[in-house]
Amino acid sequence: MRGHRVIVPTTLHKQMLQELHMGHFGMTKMKSLARSYFWWPELDHDIENLVRNCAECNTYKNNPKK
Where does the record place the Integrase zinc-binding domain (predicted)? Predict the structure, then answer.
């Protein structure tokens, strides 16, 4: 463990990102949630790529959910 976070093996990165991304909370919220629970090298980079390439996130990024 790294602090109180789980170090996630490479084989599970995609699954973990998909679970976090289901709510389409945006990059900042997704990074915050991820950092609270787990870690892997380049975690922030992977989140940035996922959010930037998400059509729904890009559609609503300037009009947040209320």
Answer: 8-62
Tokens matching residue 57: 């996130």
Q: Residue 66 domain-assigned? A: no
Residues of the domain holding 53:
6-59
pLDDT tens profile 45-66: 999 999 999 999 888 777 655 5
- Overall domain count for the chain: 1
Intra-chain end-to-end CA distance of the chain, in Å: 35
Is the residue at 65 inside a domain? no
* Local structure of 42: helix, strand or coil: coil
